[in-house]
Sequence to fold (455 residues):
Amino acid sequence: MSEPVPVSDSAPTVESAADPGTGTRPLPGTAAGQAETLARATWSRLAEPADAHACALVGGLGATGALAWLTQEALDADGRPRPAPRPPLPPRGDAGRASADWAVAAGRWAPRLRGLDIRRELDVLERLGGSLILPGDPWWPTGLNDLERPPHCLWVRGDPALLVSRCSTEQVGDVALDTPRMREDLVPAGPGTGRALALVGARASTDYGERVTTDMASGLAAGGVVVVSGGAFGIDAAAHRGALRTGATVSVSAGGVDRLYPAGNADVLEEVIANGALVAEVPPGCQPGRHRFLTRNRLIAAMSDATVIVEAAWRSGALSTAHHAMEVGRPVGAVPGPVTSMASVGCHRLLRQGAVCVTDADEALELVAPLGTTDPDGCKAEDPANAGSGLLDGLDGPAAVVMDALPARADASVESVARAAGLSEHETIAALGLLELEGRVERRGAAWRRARGRR
Fold:
């Protein structure tokens, strides 16, 4: 069995840097910190994303301590799983059953450990100009800490500063994280500056869905929002394209960042890398297996301040992103479609379950912007295009009654209008004055009539 490699010829091995039982991360720049970096990168290759045992082990012992337990206690000298290793964490129930469970977990990881030298993947990342981001790093998305099973690290191509915002950065002790750049420095100024919104949906999208998505993403990015999506065909690609028109976007991959998948979206993903960020929790070389797409969706939800679904079938994978968002307490919105469209039944299902109805960028922005900074309904009410052309549109109270009481094509006296409306002459005169100011009625001597075009 190949042992985990040292950081350098003079640095300690991953095992020797272990600090079992603390679960704390060594200081960056130290030998222990370098070993922890290697160990976390190693775990991202050993265990599948969201592996419950791996997440608990690394969370409890730290990555180096977890790797030390695996190599020194769970596996024998030949790299085979021991039948009953010591449980690395206090068992909640029967110790024998816990030991057997950990033996099964070690059996999953052992085949990948043989011959593994994670520095090869790190070299690939370096050649691609990428970054490895660990929990606690300045550019670690703090929203990922809300996950029950967070990633061990993030492999990033593009600008990692887009992953964090000043409005959500956690404090370390009493000192704020010293980050040279964050989202606010890289996106347009607007009501959504510093926020991130996940915009995802069906691969088998319609022209309607792609048009709505492109317009929404473009409007959000122009308002300072970083649009997060999954890089897939259909709605995801439309979200990235729309955001790149006016701002920045982040794509979360189910495979390694060296593989631009799907190949048909390579041009879009190259532009994402150049003007945004491509993120994965697995190292370069990992295939984007089908099972990894669903676990990837939890990252999209947790990295974002809200999630909006555009087109989703009844059992669409995009719905898992919405459910992950709900689990970590993020707002969820859905774009309605034609009630006859099978591409939107998943969105309608979410709306029935309480998701916010979202029809444009302003309504999506309301999900992430500070309270009171946006008023999409107010903007729509003031838009002349929404004023309507009906006789009584925009009227209420006495004004509506008086307008309706005026003859369609003839003049009428105040007394006649008051009698028809069932109002006093004083109320009628006041209402007619308001209607005249709005250009809805005309005065002819002592009589009144509807203005032309209002008949």
DSSP finds 15 helices and 14 strands in the chain. Confidence is low (pLDDT under 50) at residues 1-23, 170-177. Residues 396 and 403 are 10 Å apart (CA to CA). Residues 15-116 form one domain.
